[in-house]
Amino acid sequence: MSDLHGVIVSHAAVAQALVSAVTVITGIEGALTPVSNEGCGTEALAERLSQAVGTGPAVLFVDLPGGSCLNTSLRYAKRHADIAIVTGVNLAMLLDFVFHRDATPEEAARRAVDAGSKAIRVTAA
Question: How far is CA 5 from the centre of its chain?
Fold first, then answer.
């Protein structure tokens, strides 16, 4: 696997729950880091995000396509060329990501979006 890291940026404890689920399902630890905006403003959220990304390439998985989590992620990515952003994070895309971290951030992000989109369906009971 490469040094490509995933960071989930969300409201409340959504990110932590997703990281826990991926770890339990796959047994892979350390591929994803949760970041919550709970109890902080944009400056503090930017600091949390910076610490979570560290050095090297990353894909930022954001919960919603708007709001403070996305806005902070976009500002961060503008200053770092090796960052890709995906909004509308779901479990299927994260599972795909942890097994395919040998790609560039852009390739991994596109692959994750494809896997996540294919997992969304209306299912009859």
Answer: 9
